[in-house]
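Person: Please comment on this record:
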Amino acid sequence: MTVRKAWIVATVAIGVGISFVMLLVVGVYMVAGNLANGIGGGAVGLAKGAVPAAYQPLVQKWGNLCGAINPALLAAQLYQESGFNPNAKSPAKAEGIAQFIPGTWATHGVDGDGDGDRDVWDPNDAIPSAASYDCQLASYVKNAPGNVTENMLAAYNAGAYAVIKYKGVPPYKETQNYVKTITTLSKSFAAPVTRVDPSKQAATAITYAQKKLGTPYLWGGTGTADQGGRFDCSGLTQASYESAGITLPRVANDQYNAGAHPKRSELLPGDLVFFSDDLTNSRAIRHVGIYVGGGYMIDAPRTGAVIRFDPIDTPDYFGATRVTEDGAKALPTSI
């Protein structure tokens, strides 16, 4: 079992916009059918803003401590454990941003910042300790057949002995799911080095959002009957992808981690686009919409407004996510 917690300025005319979107929907289907599945790689660099700025240098540095880990993988573990919350504490008494339990911290905690103490609540110690512990586990299972990173993650979850005994990831469903979850989630924190493939579900999500144009905004709205079928921004994006069979988290800043992050020049219809007053921290994201092409999105903007087309090129544009089914499934249910 794991030793840490398992864890707007302009509106286009609606009539013209609908025709425009329908052309884009067809285009998404064509592109999705012509490209292979998967996400472009690039695990050494971190995606823009994916890790809060206060911790980005630590994750980048310590994520390269050994060959079994990388910055994106380390970021995925920290997000899974605590959502980058340095004050997190679980019912199992796991503590800090990396969610060490006291016994494990006593053995594996390191003085990452060289100030003479080992403080589980200090990310300057806890993040280096997480990387150090990963690398130590990797050294324990270095002779086991298979992928060194997967074996390390399996050892983190099930113990090094199980990996050695079974000559790789053991046949435990929990452990196999953990390995898949972290390796998948790491793609959301990596800066892609190749073009990110389109989502096959994008067109369905756009079609759903398009049908909601003109619906009044409701803070906290998820489209239920008792809410009059109204939405807030993340409620709309959640429902749009739910119609395509993908379950997204409820809030925008967690939806950002449901896939890889294409550049502005690489956006495709169906990408989620995000907005924040802090462009260095995805945890500060406050708004999300669905990109439809031509520099526009469908979004539920604010109280007093309706679901509509809005431009995305505003000063608070944060970035985008190309949602994938595996990416959404990898997100923690609570952090």
Summary: Residues 68 and 149 are 5 Å apart (CA to CA).
